[in-house]
Amino acid sequence: MTNPPSLFDPLRLGPIEAAGRVFKTATAETRASVDGFVSDELVEWYGLLARGGTPLVITGNFYVSPQGKSTYRMCGVDSDEKIPGLRRLAEISDRFGTKLIAQLNHCGRQVIVGHSGVDDPVSASAQRDPVMGAKPRPLRLDELPGVVDSFAAAALRCREAGFDGVQIHAAHGYLLNQFLTPHTNRRRDAYGGSFENRLRLVREIVRETRRRVGADFALLLKMNGDDRLPLRRGLQIDENLAIAKALVGEGIDAVEVSVGHYESGFPMTAGRFDDFYRQLVVHGAGQYMDAVRRFSMTRFHGALDALSRRLWPPREGFNLEYAARFKHELSVPVIVVGGFHTRAAMEGALSGAGADAISCGRAFIADPFLVEHLRTGEAGPVCDYCNLCLARAGTGPVDCWNPVARAEKQKLLAAKELE
Ligand SMILES: Cc1cc2nc3c(=O)[nH]c(=O)nc-3n(C[C@H](O)[C@H](O)[C@H](O)COP(=O)(O)O)c2cc1C
Ligand code: SF4
Questions:
Q1: Residue whose CA lies nearest to ligand 2 atom number 4
Q2: The listed CATH number (3.30.70.250, 3.30.300.30, 3.20.20.70, 3.90.1640.10) that belongs to domain 11-270+314-418
Q3: Which residue's CA is the closest to the ligand 2 atom numbered 2?
């Protein structure tokens, strides 16, 4: 019998090799300039992750076109002028041997109209997003080639900037997920209805992106294991597996498995929700929501925190059951995201054949040197899944706002400064 892989064994993802199996997943940084250019603040964050020995880093979601921008100070890959800034991220990662993957996204209907600069949100159909409140207009057939082109052109820019690959974001209820899911895709043309029709846009994007970037650039995919849309026509594991298989056939090198749309609530960021809704209204995107949403969160924040904690409690490996199915059926590596921070849970996922690699979001926000600490056994700041980083996502630079973990992180960064 062969030994299960260790966290520090290399892993091949198509044309690239990561020097370990604990990756940083995409977490929106809100650290670009207001017009979407790479800033010093963004380079500093990626520099820390690379210095910490992270073998592979997936950026926060980058918009492929101005229409797909979901938040303030989001980074864009929508024009060639952005390439010199993007090159700075690739250079700082490469200096420490970190593979850098850009997550490419179009938010579709999941946007607060006006806040990010998007006034005309689009989707597969006109289904309103009940969380952000946006009522999108369906994309016209003659607009879809432009969407395909925006992803493929963005990937090519990343390649030119020196990135090692891109990740197509088809999870979490953003535009590509909106086309895949029957609840959000009510079209009656060639892009809606049957399995093949709902898949068509994403298939065209993956095919065209692979054609333009060539074989020696990694193409990753983030997908849901389950849409978690009970009583609505959401996707479940079997159909998601069929989608993943079809896209691997178009040239995807690895699949990261997550869960949920915005409309599902917070299964994708299961946690403790300590003072979450109040902080969302005071410091986060809640400030820009309509009066009814602001009033509800201000008035009922305690009850909403308690309900969320009950519905989506923190747990290491909360997407593992889906990832294990993907791993069993796909011919490419599977990355599992969701609640991981301890070595024991990560090793359990690898040895139990649940996944080929682990990705973490919040654990890296608390401790950018997580991989170094896993390797040496030294204690670092520990994420307690309060979700206060999420409460402020999209309004200020991504950071840990938990008083205990934040103090630990500041101590760590001060010590690293002296090294
Ligand atoms: C502050 C914050 C920002 C996030 N931004 C993104 C993003 O840009 N793209 C994405 O696919 N997921 C995003 N997520 C979700 C994470 O990638 C991940 O799926 C989720 O946090 C679960 O992993 P974790 O338990 O290791 O944090 C974000 C999560 C947080 C907390
Ligand atoms: S604020 Fe800090 S401790 Fe809380 S979930 Fe985010 S990273 Fe973890």
A1: 386
A2: 3.20.20.70
A3: 400
User: What DSSP line would sit under 186-202, residue for residue?
Assistant: ---STTSSSHHHHHHHH
Given ligand 1 and candidates 45, 107, 269, which is best to mutate, with the most ligand atoms within 8 Å of its CB?
A: 269
Determine the length of the chain.
Answer: 419
* Predicted local distance difference test score (pLDDT) of residue 1: 54
**How far apart are the CA of 188 and the centre of ligand 1, in A?**
33
3 state DSSP class of 120 = coil
Residue keyed to tokens 């068509």: 200
User: Taking the chain (419 residues) in consecutive chunks of 10 residues, what is each chunk's mean pLDDT?
Assistant: 84 98 97 96 96 98 96 95 98 98 97 85 96 94 98 98 98 98 98 98 98 98 97 97 98 98 97 94 85 87 93 97 97 98 96 93 98 96 96 90 96 88
Q: Is 363 in the pocket of ligand 1 (CB under 6 A)?
A: yes
- Between CA 307 and CA 91 the distance in angstroms is 44
Ligand 1 centroid, distance to 24 Cα (angstroms): 10
